[in-house]
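Anyone able to model this chain together with nicotinamide-adenine-dinucleotide?
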Amino acid sequence: MTARVTHWINGQLWDGTAERSGDVYDPATGKVTKSVDFASRATLDEAVSAAKAAFPMWRDTSLTKRAQILFAFRELLNAEKESVAALITEEHGKVLSDALGEVTRGQEVVEFACGIPHLLKGGFSEGVSSGVDVYSIRQPLGVVGIISPFNFPAMVPMWFFPVAIAAGNTVVVKPSEKDPSAIMLIADMWKRAGLPDGVFNVVHGDKEAVDGLLENPDVKSISFVGSTPIARYIYETGTKNGKRVQALGGAKNHMLVLPDADLDLAADQAVNAGFGSAGERCMAISVVLAVDPVGDELVAKIAERMPQLRTGDGRRGTDMGPLVTGVHRDKVRSYVDAGVESGATLVVDGREIVVDGDADGFWLLPTLFDHVTTDMTIYSDEIFGPVLCVVRVPSYEAGVQLINDHPYGNGTAIFTNDGGAARRFQNEIEVGMIGVNVPIPVPMAYYSFGGWKSSLFGDTHAHGTEGVHFFTRGKVITSRWLDPSHGGLNLGFPTQS
Ligand code: NAD
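re: yes, here you go
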């Protein structure tokens, strides 16, 4: 019998019986290891009700007390990050060191949110008119919904809930059904940290649970991360239902290599950023734009590094793990087939499998295409696997044009030693997160994460001050303490004097 993963509602595991459930795999063995309950609309509503009931108490809990609970949660997370990482590797497949890195990046948002007393400070203007002061405050929204993807089962929810909770909101998280266990350990940590029941809830499931969050009028905002078609649906439906929505979508990140770049360092970074986490990162590099005349040399340098990568079970110190499911592996593989059919040069063929792991795991090895053109699906589509495409471009301008013409605008990087070119690039490029000789420019927690164009719907990015803004509403108070000088009748519109 496989282990069961169920919901976390009002500070405890749900004790009902689910009508539907899904399989959770160990991608390195291809075996089903757990079954995860899928929430019905009624179960989702139960979680929202628990969060709604906890809101007035949590909103009125002092900033000092909220910060203390966040600090306690941070200590538990830091002490038990290996356990969270192990759960991620078991269900996602990424190698342990990578899973640990994900937890660390999530922890940085918790550390940022520990400063909530400072982050929520408003403004105060004394004497805007005679005896009149104006000040601003920010207040929590209420119940907030968070819907996350499979590729970062700990970090992506942590882009949102530390800030949301610190700001006084109560939360319902709908994690990916593919790797649902890491968030359960996190829920338990919140309880041990002293977070009151009902402030943090987890509901597992699929579209039914997501639609419940989108439709329940007590859910005030939705923070979504996932593929672009679903992000667009979430944004359109959520805003139609009167909710505040930030919906982060897919990506196709280009790395522009100028002729003056150090090609050895650029090749190292292209391999790291292309194949880390088996390419299942929204900030992975999937296209290298080689500016003439570096193409032949750069492709040779990337190709000569690839055999050094050891693919296999992420618990065994390998460099790259399996893909998340067999279905996803087959989809990525079909893109490799399509690339060959459309005439791209297959320099390294990842379909030839030699792995350090179970033969039934969801394997696909690092794959490199050269002479890719913009009409090929391996260029236009987000593949989300270990497939790196090299496009040859004649100039810096042609490279920038390609990046700006692509519908996605999540991340990009330029490799050059020319500061002027880098500065021009950051100014001209239509992408939300830019690396200068940094291939995966994920912003620190105190900046905000988010792309442009089809990589983000809504106008607020995750965490940083934009995150604080998203999870709070502003009020401005104009106040005076009446004395006899304020007497008399005057129907004119108030102006300063
Ligand atoms: P996904 O869109 O399939 O799923 C994301 C979430 O939506 C999951 O919780 C899933 O259960 C739910 N969902 C799936 N189908 C749905 C439907 N029809 N209606 C309502 N909800 C639905 O994405 P994924 O495969 O889990 O994750 C990979 C994608 O996420 C990639 O496209 C990747 O680029 C993107 N991503 C983006 C960022 C970013 O910051 N922009 C970060 C991480 C991942």
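Residues 41-59 form the longest helix (19 residues).
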